[in-house]
Amino acid sequence: MAHDDLQTYLNDHLAGSLMALKVLDRLVAGCEDVADRQFFADLQREIEEDRSVVVRLMERVEGRPGALRQAGAWGAELLAQVKLRLDDPGGNRLAYFEALEGLSLGILGKRALWRALAATARQVPAVGGEDYDRLIARADDQHTRVETRRLAAAPLLFHRG
Fold this sequence. Notes:
Blueprint: H1 2-30, H2 34-60, H3 67-87, H4 93-120, H5 132-158
Helix pairs in contact: 1-2, 1-3, 1-4, 4-5
């Protein structure tokens, strides 16, 4: 039963990472500024690396990516895009801000995943062997970088002048 719960938990985070990668696809494609495009491409690469750790852990606990969760993540991202098109027809500041906010929150969730797995590694050998301190530090760094951009975008979005 515990491994079933762990498989579900890992599957949920795998689906979340898919959503993040879809958001980053849009951000990379929509960036005219070379430095911004590189920022999002680098973040995308890091999230793909983190996602591969989750896949590896799933294999160790004899789980496999849940097709329903992956489809749900894809569908949720699609619905989010539709919502943003309605709320922000120009696809500019609000869409950018909310994409950053979603990424920021998702990265905090990933950090929580790494912390939970680190706390579990002694009792569940299948999740041992990963450098959780490094993964947590990388999540902290990712969050700081994304949150810095989000907070810089806030006054541009909310200021009416």
